[in-house]
Every structure is written in C-alpha cells, then in structure tokens.
Amino acid sequence: MPSNDERWLDAEAGPVVRPYALTQGRTRHTGESFDLVATVLATRTFADTSVLAPEHLSVLQLARVPTTVADIASDVDLPLGVVRIILADLRELGLIDIVTPVVMAERIDTHTLREVLNGLRGL
Amino acid sequence: MGYGVSDADGNRQYRAIKILLAGGFGVGKTTLVGAVSEIRPLRTEEPLTEGSLRTDSTAFVEGKTTTTVAMDFGRISLRSDLVLYLFGTPGQQRFWFMWDELAIGALGAVVLADTRRLADSFPAIDYFERRQIPFIVALNCFDGAREYDTEDVRLALDLEPDLPVILCDARDKESAKDVLITLVEHVLMTASEEPLSGIA
Question: Which of A107, A109, A111, A121 would you mutate first to test chain B, the one with the most B CBs within 10 A?
C-alpha cells in the first residue's frame, strides 16, 4: 500500500495547475485589464488584512510604493496570470489602484522621450 | 495628453516605459539587457497550442491549457519616477502571443540581428513594420566577427533608408546604451515628422 505521501503525484494529481490554487482556480481576473507596466499603488483605505491570503498580503505590501505589475510578479515569484488575478482582487476590495499609463492609447509624448534620452545619456 | 504631468494631488506620476528587444534565438538579447540594466526574472504562461500539445506530455492532465514559461526583463531607473523596462521578446513563433501585449504602448523596438543568420530577424522586422512600431536594427558583432557594412545589411533586409542600422557589442554597457539612445533618437525624429497622426 502506498503511503499518503506517495499519492497524488504529478499527473495522478489530475487537472490541477498548482499556482492557480491561490486563485481558487480562476484563470481570468475581474474588471478592466491592465498592462505589464501599469503602476500599482496601495490606497489609503483601511482594511481588515487578516482576511487576506499571504500572497495577497505580499502583493499589497509591495504596492505601498508605486510599482509595476511586472516588478510585483517578479518579486513574489508567481506566474503573471496569477499575479493579475490577485491584483484584480485587491482592486475590487478598494485596496489598490492600478493606473495604466495614458501612452497605452497614444504615442509617448516628445517631452517624455527627451527625458528618457537625457536619462540614458547620463547613465 | 496628461502622461508625465502632475496628478490631481500635485504628485508627479510614476512613469514606466517599455522598449522591446526582438531577434532570433541566441542572438544576444539577454546579454544586451544584462549589460545595461538590472535583470529580473518573470514567470508567465503560454497557451498550449496544437504544436506544443503534441510535444508536451499532458495526456494525463486534462484541461491543462497553459504551461509556465520563464522570461527576463531589464529595469533601468532613469529617475525615481521614470523607469525604462526592456522586454526581450522570444523569437520563436509559438511565443508570439506575448508580443501583442508587450507592443501596446511601447516606446519602440530594437531588432538584434546576427549577420550569420540574418533571416532569423525577418519575422520581428515584419511584425514591427506591420504595426507601425518604430524600431532600429542593431547588428551584434560576436567575438572575432569582422566589421560588417551596415548598408549591405540594410539592402539584405530591405529596410527604409532612414531606419537606423548600427553595429553593437551586446556585452558592452556603453554599446548597449548607444543602441537604446539610437532608438529613442529615431523615435523622436519619427514623432516630429508625423505630427499628431493619431495612431492608437
């Protein structure tokens, strides 16, 4: 007889993609979509954080300063899709704002381009 | 407008700018990103396509439609509120699902090419031309590689005369910086030539 430890390994575990256990199996997030470099910032809303899962809490902590979706995903070392769902959850709870730069709909303005150019020259 | 100006509270907005780095497998994309920026790992998912379903053993994992893929990106803080993100776009066709997202709102793109395998850069060039995303071509001069005539490459790739084609050493910080500077200068030039054309 196999012990409990030996059961449910790999393919035998069935249709489970482990990171998505954190999202209760959801693979799509709610609300408006947001870019990889959209800026995430925690709101000053008071919240009972004891109800949040540890991963949600970690993401919320990182968002205390303006941080991009890509940086958060890299810091928490979870797949981007999972991080997007966590972010959308936090947004729905009013705990964070997700700001997609206006340039998503427009070309980057020349003022910003010049700032980037000067920044690169000064590296 | 509004991008890069102050928000309602009078704070300057945090601005994150995307630059894409495209090119064939092994052309030196990660090397270039590493030479000029802090490399950060990112895990993302790839939808399993017909092609990958045949090669990946998922027969026992019913309903599994994605697989995790690792990619890197580079981060250059130009100022506390202005950060450049370099995304290396995987060259293989099965990763193209990522390009569309990465391309939205990007400043522009660098196509990194190896003169020994110029054809590897065709898909990237086609992609950026079709979507009117400004780009430049940088030829990575590998160890012992002879000097190439950039005009020969321009002809071979059938590029517009005003599109910059430059030589670079992806391992060298100054050279990698020059590649990015050339791109931004090209985008600035293009922007001043087509005033308010309203391309989304």
Answer: A107
